[in-house]
Amino acid sequence: MTSPAVSPSPTASAARAVDLTKVYGSGDTAVVALDAVSCAFERGQYTAIMGPSGSGKSTLMHCLAGLDDATGGAVFIGDTDITTLDDKRLTRLRRDAVGFIFQAFNLLPTLTAIENITLPMDIAGRKPDQEWLDTVIDRIGLRDRLNHRPTELSGGQQQRVACARALASRPEIIFADEPTGNLDSASGAEVLGFLRRSVTDMHQTIVMVTHDPGAAAYADRVLFLADGRIVDEMADPTAELVLDRMKKFEIVHADDVR
User: Fold this and answer.
1) Domain of residue 242, CATH code
2) Which residues, 6 or more positions from 22, have their beta carbon under 8 angstroms from its beta carbon?
3) How far is CA 200 from the centre of its chain?
């Protein structure tokens, strides 16, 4: 097993964690969700985070994205330590530098697809870069559906709109939490293919939590968590290699239970 080190060049990282700790509760009821985790996510790279249920993978992503407070350690988006920011500055940084894609599409039903895509920038009072916006829209392949509301779109189309919304402001990094969890296999493949192309062709940076070895195979690397720690890393993953690695977690867990 190998443990990934924090990048020695912070400017090469879109995000990184240094000795990140997250504890829920206190005293005898305390649960350590993250145990001094250090990792870095290079710009223009697609990383999948995997692990058994309760391993801390979603907690890691939420802390990295500033959606949950860390108990200890530091989290950087670019060169900014977000653990030092007050609520107002953290909200501004999430709005300007971070994109989010969730399992639930989180589209507003009263808005059209294009209105949902530009909503975060509209709220911020910013005009989109039209050339970049056109590129994103063309890549998601829904130009002819831009004036349709979410109820008029399939699940896969809605998630592609959510992906476009995350990309539209050209954020420093995009966090995706089980983005294909509510989709059938064909729609999920469309969304994962779009995310892959956004990294390869558009030089975006994506960190994705998933339980699906097939989804992880779209990434450049996979980080494996167990008991709140990074226990392994895999470059150039395939679904078969990831599945084999996850089976080893199950065997170890079964031995621990016995």
Assistant:
1) 3.40.50.300
2) 32, 33, 34, 56, 59, 63, 68, 70, 71, 228
3) 16
Number of domains within the chain: 1
In a domain, 2, yes or no: no
Summarize the chain as % helix, strand, coil (round to 5). Answer: 45, 25, 35
DSSP codes joined into one string, 117-175: HHHHHHHHT----HHHHHHHHHHHT-GGGTTS-GGGS-HHHHHHHHHHHHHHT--SEEE
For 53, other C-beta atoms within 10 Å of its C-beta total 8
pLDDT digits (tens, 9 = 90+) for 32-76: 999 999 999 999 999 999 998 889 999 999 999 999 999 999 999
Asked whether 197 and 46 are in contact (CB, 8 A), the reply is no
Q: Which amino acid is at 15?
A: A
Q: Is position 14 within any domain? A: no
- Residues with Cβ within 8 Å of 47's Cβ and at least 6 positions away in sequence, in order, are 41, 206, 207, 208, 219, 220, 221, 222, 223
Which strands form 13-24's sheet, in the order they lie side by side? 31-42, 13-24, 72-77, 80-81
Residue found by looking up tokens 């953290």 in the block: 90
CA-CA-CA-CA torsion for 236, 37, 1, 42, nearest 10 degrees?
Answer: 20
Task: Give residue 209's domain range.
Answer: 44-69+85-257
Chain segment 185-221, per-residue pLDDT in tens: 998 998 899 999 999 998 999 999 999 999 999 999 9
Full-model pTM: 0.86
Inter-residue contact 3 to 36 (CB < 8 Å): no
